[in-house]
Specification:
mainly alpha
Length: 144
């Protein structure tokens, strides 16, 4: 994993990549800021391997304050396993799984929460295509 000069939040990395002028620059930014949280957002958004076990659409949650979010996606991305079909969350009640999801959204930066909701809804990330993500992180088998 590349050493970061600055510890960016996931939304900041994607925003920086979105604003880059060339595909090569976008890929470089993603590689330089590699984390499993970033890769999970890209995979969850673009890979057909993951089918989410949550309702699509708008999610009713209370945003955390941007300046004092209790945690971030570099830590909380591990909770994603409870939200896709075939994962351990299948054993939870729907209410428990959705409550856990809302708790995750309320604990992270509001812009990261928007990314997570977009991921569940399979909304493309503006300025960062599936091809860019696949070229930045080609050794992930779930890209299919």
């Amino acid at each position: 994993m590349a050493v970061n000069k600055v510890d960016w939040l996931i939304w900041e990395v994607l925003d920086k990549a979105r604003k880059a002028r060339s595909k090569e620059e976008k890929i470089k930014i993603l590689k330089e800021n590699e984390s499993w949280g970033l890769k999970d957002i890209l995979l969850g958004t673009y890979s057909d391997y993951f089918e989410w076990n949550l309702p699509q659409g708008k999610v009713p949650y209370k945003e955390s304050k941007a300046e004092s979010a209790p945690t971030d996606l570099k830590r909380k991305h591990k909770d994603f396993m409870y939200f896709f079909k075939g994962g351990p969350g299948d054993k939870m009640t729907t209410i428990k799984r959705e409550s856990l999801f809302i708790g995750l959204l309320e604990a992270i930066h509001p812009k990261d929460a928007e990314l997570v909701v977009g991921m569940i809804n399979k909304e493309k990330i503006e300025g960062v295509t599936k091809n860019v993500a696949m070229e930045a992180f080609p050794n992930i088998p779930e890209w299919r």
